[in-house]
Description:
By secondary structure, the chain is an alpha+beta fold. It is built from 8 helices and 21 strands.
Amino acid sequence: MSISIENLTKRYGPLTVVHGISFNVAKGEFMSLLGPSGCGKTTTLRCIAGLEDANGGVIRIGDRIVSAPEQDVVVSAHERQIGMVFQSYAIWPHMTVAGNVGFPLAIRKVAAQEVERQVDEALEIVGMRHLRDRHPSQLSGGQQQRVALARAIVGRPRVLLFDEPLSNLDAKLREGTRTEIKRLQRELDVATVYVTHDQEEALSMSDRVIVMDGGRITQAGTPKELYRRPANRFVADFVGRASFIDVTRMNGSGWSTAAGVRLRLDDAGAPPATRYQAMLRPESIDICHGAARGKADESDNILCGHVVESHYLGAYTEYLVEASGAKLKVHSRSDFDVGAEVTLRFAPEFCRLVALGDEDRV
Length: 362
């Protein structure tokens, strides 16, 4: 089953929190809604689930319209055949693991024998069948999350919805659970919408990512498209780590920094704007000691600067380098002292032109 959203609008009184957004999720596709708190991603998910009533637009699951306020169509949540995992797990403390997993089936008045069979099947998939008689208080956080996963997939739902399901887990458990969720989604081959504010989760798990801000879709695409070719500064800054250099168009062609240094960069498809910046990812910049100068035919961009901060992160050190009027993040395994003069080199294809809106703070 696919999911189709057309001009979805949601208001709370006079406040509009989702502004007529549209997108599709194909059967078997893993789509993430990514954005900061308050951007409308969870509200969108809850409208799909039927936990919130939309004020406008059409929501389809497969060929069935499940929400169309203008047509007076609203299908209740339990009739939409969705599986959902909540941020808080939402596990009943007085029920056993089996009771929690089988609860959606009991609501639908499935026969007891069939409930037992489907519960065992779901628990087997998540590796929890041997703990079916335990209560949530006897489980670890990771085990409770797997109970929530089993409850979401019991009965083979038509679509899967996830509302920041890993936010309560520690880093080690999050990494393992990401892999588990993706494995389950591939095995079930269902359309999946995953809400998160964690860009690493979105990039590592998704077939496509929708970046939201202020109840609107800012950009949609594959993880690589969003990371390598962000549409604007907001997307560039939110999806991964990035540094920015103010640039202006030179007479004729090309771009230069405020300090007058010419930059070769990727400006293909950049939207019209009054102001622009060059975006650089920290892993795309090479750093070396000294204030070297490039040759006239040097294909790489070269900036000279000095180290102002240093943060050791194990696999690499993140340096903050002041160069050409900007402070640039650089990842390197080499050692540089704070205050050291350095040269930065980066290829034009890794230097992306991004547009600034009036609301962007430089």
